[in-house]
Amino acid sequence: MSKRDIDNWFMTEVLPLEGALMRFLRRHWREEAEIADLRQETYARVYDAARKQMPTHTQAFVFMTARNLIIDRARRARIVSIDTIADFEALPVIMDEPDAEDQLSSRQELKALQVALDALPPRCRKIVAMRKIQGISQRKTAQALGIAESTVEKQVSKGVRRLADALYGDGGTFAGDPSARAQNVKNGQSAKVTKERDK
Amino acid sequence: MTDAMQSEKQAADWIAKLDNIQIEGIEGEDHSGNDVIAWFGAADPAFAAWIAQSVENRVAFLRFSATWRRADRLAALNADTAPAAGAAVSSFRQRPILAWAAAAALAFVAVFIAADRYFWAPGPEVFETAIGGHETVPLADGSRIELNTDTRLTAKIGSDRRAVALEKGEAYFDIARDETRPFIVEAGNKRITVLGTKFTVRRHNKSGGDGEVEVIVTEGRVRIDDIAVRAHRPPTYADKGTLVLARAGDTLVAEKTEEELSAELGWRQGLLIFDQMDLANVVDEFNRYNRVKLVVADPQAASIRIGGSFKAENVDAFARLLKDGFGLKVAREGNKIVIKA
Question: ipTM greater than 0.85, yes or no?
């Protein structure tokens, strides 16, 4: 497996699981602010492991990695009671099914992209639209808007981060249905890690 | 900030930087390797160092790279696609709170649709050749396209980009250099992007498959992407002297010698040039150019190897050669010439 093969595998097999992965992480980790961090570390571990040996079942492997990461973190941070650690050992790997629309039709994909684009802050959206809809270069975009090229670059950087979250993180579902998330939190309550800073 | 979040921020910044320089670099002389990480690494040592620094950096970059490429699909909202603009309206309407933003965005879209109509004012031009045809057409930007037999393509020369859709057949592109307007050829599910270079694109229409796309670069450098939705594969970059054969799932890249290249391009002189090719394949080539079709009736004859150069339209002379030179049985049946051992 060359690096390039692993890169391709990561982009085509692992990234589409992100919606399900995020739901899994949110169900088992209370601190919303740390979810993105857990996601990235899951990815890093998954990629690292694949370099040594490509897993046969990508989905199962990604969730197992996320589960182990949560356990490691909770232990290292000493934020949980002994009881909770015992619980962790029994932490189930719940197979969140990847979204049914994993293979979006061309029209759905466009719609998803449009929704993600619409959700960007106005200035960021305008610049991303000029780059991606109109195919205008950053330099020309800057000229057209009368702003510095470095500003355009900053907005592109911001735009790509938000688009990634919208397109992968919210499961590629349109507009990231908040009710679905609330549902997940409720169902996952029993396995939730409880922080014990107050103790 | 945690390491992972630091990686994310930096990765997004690199994507933004790459987005700014990539188009200028397409034809650079000193870039090697096929994927964007290798290419960008070669172009910018700081990036090479950063991506090699940690696996966190790499995965963050890959995630954004896939995202940014996915966003290319937004180009479908461009221009003359009125239904897409309609869809934009409805998606805004679902969120009345953001009505002001919707209004602003719509105004923005409307301006660009208008601008685009203006830019594309000459309208798309359709060029076509019949079986056996061969024609060179000039484009408004100074580029030239040479159409081989049985070829159809549509060309739109806009102020921000130049686009050709190759619907069938084969064409040689001699593209006038313009760094502000990339030239894009779409063939099947492949998109070939250049700034100014010389190359051929051929669509193979073999029965059964969805068709291969063959690209031969004779000057400069081209970039080949998948158009397919959610194909997050990195682009393939091909340099002068390269033949790229792209199928649905994979892409083969082969270096070719001068001699092999001129054989591949023989059609521009009306010649078919073969180097020990199976008769079965030779016959397929001849049949592209002629209404009278050669048919090989048995496998023994099909595997005979043919070398040499032939006039593409002179199928009768070729049939005589098979008869006299190779001792094959050749019989004319209406619009067919049947060949047997």
Answer: no
